[in-house]
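User: I'll paste a sequence; please echo it back and then give the predicted structure.

Assistant: Echoing your sequence first, then the prediction.
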Amino acid sequence: MCRGVARKEQSTGRRLEARIRRWLISFGLDWNASDPLHVILDGDAAVGPAGRAEDVFLGLGWAFDPTARLTLGWRILEGGADVDESRNFTMVDFASLGFRLIL
């Protein structure tokens, strides 16, 4: 995905057009290890010129029937930015318990 950004050049006052690329990545794996047990890997990531962010989940799912599943796993959220005004970094990880119902 590309987005154009317009800014003025200070010496001449002309407008400059710059193309900035931001990459968005999403992936998912749902492996049926045995009949009711599933291994789940799910993630999203965004990368741009100022920083990045990731969200990854790894866990197990227990299927009660084809439309209902209990999930238990670990999620990691991470991201940061490095620009002229500030620098930051955040990493949060936690256990996750969920119930998925497919209608």
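The beta strands are 2-8, 15-21, 23-32, 37-47, 51-65, 68-82, 87-101. Confidence is low (pLDDT under 50) at residues 1-9.
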